[in-house]
Amino acid sequence: MATFQKPENALKRAEELINVGQKQAALQALHYLITSKRYRSWQKTLERIMFKYIELCVDMRKGRFAKDGLIQYRIVCQLVNVSSLEEVIKYFIHLSTERAEQARSKAQALEDALDVDDLEADKRPEDLMLSYVSGEKGRDRSDRELVTPWFKFLWETYRTVLEILRNNSKLESLYAMTAHRAFQFCKQYKRTTEFRRLCEIIRNHLINLNKYKDQRDRPDLSSPESLQLYVDTRFEQLKIATELELWQEAFRSVEDIHGLMCMVKKTPKSSHMVIYYAKLTEIFWVSESHLYHAFAWFKLFTLQKTYNKNLTQKDLQLIASSVLLAALSVAPYDHKHGASHMELENEKEHKFRMTSLIGFSLDPKRDNREVLSRSSLLSELTSKGIMTCVAPEVKDLYHLLEHEFLPLDLASKVQPLLAKISKLGGKLTSASSVPEVQLSQYVPALEKLATLRVLQQVSQVYETMKIEVLSDMIPFCTFSSVEKVAVEAVRRNFIAMKVDHVKGAVLFCDMDLESDRLRDHLATLAENLNSVRSMIFAPVKKTSKLGDSLPGLAEIVDKEHKRLLARKSIIEKRKEEQERQMLEMEREEESKRLKHQKIVEEAEQKRLASEYTRREEQRIRREIEEREHEEAKALLMEAEKRSKKKGKKPAIEGDKVTKQTLIELALTEQLRERQEMEKKLQKLAKTMDYMERAKREEEAPLIEAAYQKRVEEERNLHERDQLLEIELSSQHHAGDLQEKNRLARMVVYKDIFQDKIVRQREGEHNRLVKEREERLSKLLEARWQERDRKRKLLFYLKTEEERLTKLHEEEEARKLEEAERRKKEEVERRAKLDEIAEKQRQREREAEEKEKARREALLGRSIEAPARHAEPSSGARPVEASAAPTAGKYVPRFRRDRAEGSVAAPPAEPERWGARQDEGPPQASDKWRSEDRRPSAFGGPRSSSSWTSSRASRGSER
Hints:
By secondary structure, this protein is an all-alpha fold. 73% of the residues lie in helices and 2% in strands. The chain has helices at 7-19, 23-35, 44-60, 63-77, 82-115, 125-133, 138-165, 172-188, 192-211, 224-243, 247-264, 270-286, 290-307, 313-328, 341-357, 374-384, 392-402, 410-422, 443-461, 467-473, 479-491, 516-536, 546-549, 553-646, 659-743, 747-864, 879-883, 893-901, 924-932, 945-957; strands spanning 425-427, 436-438, 464-466, 497-500, 505-508.
């Protein structure tokens, strides 16, 4: 990547690359500039570069590049110009949001355009085909292709901005604004998963903020402005969570708000607390925690009545009715009855958390049942005067359910009141912080309470009742619902009753007899009575059948004996297996012990090495600290000298001064000097402004007078110039008239001369044109001829070249055929020669066999007459010649002696192939001569004249 001397060059280069369509290269160039350490001082050009960089990142959806660039730009702007970073981040969010909205609008327009193609068809063909393949609609596909990538990038933008601004005290408002916009994004597009992640991110930011309190630019939660921003963010989070029906996240948001309130020990605004308790009521109602729901309504009513002076009587009546109905909806029995110890402990912790959220402080170690209970809440409502504010129907219902004893008519009197209460409610006025109150949500809980009251009062009057009668007494519930309510009430020890479906009756028992204290006694009594009965009435013994089983007794004993033997062998095998396992376990234990000992030794060695390393590090650190301390002292002395020269006292004193402290002091001093210089410049600029204004006020009349004087002088000068111009014009006109009259006599002669000259020039022009045309025609003719000649020559050369190429190819083919023919003849000739040689060898073998037989015959005759030898005839071959030694043949000793003793041996007959037979073995020259006389490759004998002549010459020289 090329380096740039100035940031402006990088911006110019990026614009050039963008113009030619290379956005990736432009982005890389700007990224290199922003992340380079050479440009760490802020200037206006860097801000323009960041704007262009952000545009490229958004266009190409490069979130990682944008994050890196913003982090580097934050380092540059943190101490100099934080507002520039704020503007860049706002621009980043604006661009991402705008592009996401454009993609969404484009997808919507595309879907709308496709939807009206064919008004008569139920589905488009492409939708049918794609539905078989992918199972999704056209809208889903367009969203996935166009909208989803931009939504992902927008979500990544929010995460990046929150990560960059999380520990910046100067941009807390921007952090809160980004969080609010991210919440609205999740709400608008129903992004529940992203909302959970966003809540977790903000929660982790607050945890890290409290964990690392020694950071330099950390936001201070003790300041009212910072606390208000964080609290507003959490309340917005709580609102969006309840609107998206994410109740777990809503509960965590409530806990976050409560944690912030406990952290700073300061109660938020009453308007916020109203929203807090209003959302708590929704959360507790969804989680079916009716008791805490009622207490939250009670807190909400108290806040509204105390701080909201503009609340109307109707709104107050609705809120008070909600409080009372919420209290009545709480089950009248204790949920802890019959629970285990673990459930009680979990319930105690749960109660402690819930009570702390609604503003009650309880001791977690004590049992505070009476502090938060249904009875205590109702008594509190009565003492606070809420009964005077509720609606008449709600008040009548309260008296019926809590104070009246009407076992037979209670449900019939409650039903019309519930019908009226279900119609109450609606939206409140703008003066109330609670948007809407609906009393119909309490009707199922009130029906359950009415059922419980009817069962409770009936159980006190009746012992037995038909199921049909009980069902008629409770018209708003079926008997199955009544039975479910009764089972829960019996389980919680609220009533004692049994349902006999065989008889179709309900049995109401005494609570004392069915208590837990007597149930075990009755069970024990039943067991004892059963044992006594078995003792009194003993069971009749059956007759013995021993006689029937005697015939098969031997077989049974044999089988039993075999079974015992098999069992014994199995036991032995198990013992052996157990012993083997014990030995293996001992070996494993021994190996484990050895391994453990080895590990301990290695750990000891590592500990010693680490201890040595730690001591070395401590020594090095101590030396570094001493060196830094000395450098700090030197810097402190220099600082004291500078302060004495400037007439100022040193800012720090003491021996324990670090180098970092002095650097921070120097930075602080530079910043202070810069601020003082800016103040002086501002003061000087203000003084200059005042001076300039005073000078201009004094100069105004003088300038006006000078202007009027200059206007008068210009007017006089203009009038004088006009008169002079008129006089000169008149003189020139008179002179021109005289000159015209003088030259008028020459006009006739001038015309004659002009006509003559024009005719001559026309003739000359026509002649030149004719000559030029002739020359051009000749030149064209020559060029045509030359082109024709070249074309013919090229044609001749091309045909000649083709002919030569064809001849060359024919010659090559002929040579190839000739070579193949010669090769074939050579193969045939060699085959013939091999055949002749084979025949020659066959004849030689036959001759040798004949010679051998003849020698054996001669050997027999030579024993009888050794001195006799015959003279060979002229036509026969001599014996000596046949017995002459030749190469590769066996010669008997008597033949060799005889050949040596002979004075002159007759000349040997030359062989068929020209091989010469001498007394001794053939020499090399004879061999070469014989080889030279062999037939050549072309069928004729090879010439040996050169070799014989050279040999003869060498012999003569010797």
